[in-house]
Automatic annotation (TrEMBL):
Pathway(s) served: Isoprenoid biosynthesis; isopentenyl diphosphate biosynthesis via DXP pathway; isopentenyl diphosphate from 1-deoxy-D-xylulose 5-phosphate: step 2/6
Enzyme class, broadest EC rank: transferase
Species this protein is from: Streptomyces synnematoformans
Molecular function per GO: nucleotidyltransferase activity
EC number in record: 2.7.7.60
Function comment: Catalyzes the formation of 4-diphosphocytidyl-2-C-methyl-D-erythritol from CTP and 2-C-methyl-D-erythritol 4-phosphate (MEP).
Site (Transition state stabilizer): residue numbering on this chain: R15, K22
Keywords assigned by UniProt, alphabetized: Isoprene biosynthesis, Nucleotidyltransferase, Transferase
Lineage of the organism: Bacteria, Bacillati, Actinomycetota, Actinomycetes, Kitasatosporales
Stated name of the protein: 2-C-methyl-D-erythritol 4-phosphate cytidylyltransferase
Site note Positions MEP for the nucleophilic attack, residues: R164, K220
Length: 239
């Protein structure tokens, strides 16, 4: 098997607030994207990383990676430009993969602190024959379902309360048999924000998706408080 990682990093980071594209913002003095690339490149299974950078910033991203990743053993790092949605960006990343890659891990740049063991576990499960593998954790908050399209500022009526024990919160890297992931991105229509993860698209093909244990440190940096947590996790690692 040859395993590659695709890292969508083309988002603006609107929920994080004004500033540089999220993937380029500093975490412990180093751009978040660099942490994410390192986390994937450190995995023995991964021999190629395709970074999908903000449109028009490929040169800047290339320079930034060259500055930070000189000692990155034998992992090749390629940079391409992303699109308007995460789904577009992942598709552009897949299109840059060489023909001999048969296992693909898709990992959010916004999950910079994923432990290498989680990456290895996902890759191993795909290599062992699962077409789609997702790291996941039990949900700690009770989740309510509401009617979509409620008015902002108005109290929202609750439609249902799914049984919490039957719910999982999913993370990345999500690992796939390359053909399955490619087919999902070719066939599943870009339904706006409908597909929030790649495994969800694969499910719509009728292909089985399985879960492996995720990790607390693979959380997604989305809002300002997540940066506080990420800095604290890094500081603890460095202590
Ligand atoms: N992403 C991407 N291309 C896009 C949108 C998102 O590659 N057009 C990537 C982000 O860079 C991120 C991952 O998808 O690594 C997960 O998306 P999210 O956390 O939503 O990041 P942003 O879209 O940047 O944040 P926001 O939605 O707050 O703007
Ligand atoms: Mg987004």
């Amino acid at each position: 098997h040859r395993c590659a990682a695709v890292i969508p990093a083309a988002g603006r980071g609107v929920r994080l607030g004004p500033g540089a594209p999220k993937a380029l913002r500093a975490l412990g003095g180093t751009p978040m994207l660099v942490h994410a690339v390192r986390a994937l490149a450190r995995a023995r299974a991964v021999s190629l990383v395709v970074v999908v950078g903000p449109p028009g910033e490929a040169a800047q991203v290339r320079t930034l990676l060259d500055d930070h990743l000189d000692h990155l053993d034998s992992t090749e790092v390629v940079v391409v430009s992303g699109g308007d949605t995460r789904q577009d960006s992942v598709r552009l990343g897949i299109a840059a993969l060489p023909g001999d890659v048969d296992v693909v891990l898709v990992h959010d740049a916004a999950r910079p602190l994923v432990p290498v063991d989680t990456v290895e576990a996902v890759a191993a499960a795909v290599r062992a024959g699962a077409p789609a593998v997702v790291p996941a954790l039990p949900v700690t908050d009770t989740v309510k379902q509401v009617e979509p399209g409620g008015e902002p500022g108005r109290p929202e009526p609750v439609v249902a309360t799914p049984e919490r024990a039957a719910l999982r919160a999913v993370q990345t890297p999500q690992g796939f048999d390359r053909r399955v992931l490619t087919e999902a991105h070719e066939k599943v229509p870009a339904a706006g924000e409908g597909a929030t993860d790649d495994a969800g698209m694969v499910e719509r093909l009728g292909v089985e998706v399985v879960l492996v244990p995720g990790h607390e440190e693979a959380f997604k940096v989305t809002r300002p408080l997540d940066m506080v947590l990420a800095e604290a996790v890094l500081a603890r690692r460095r202590a």
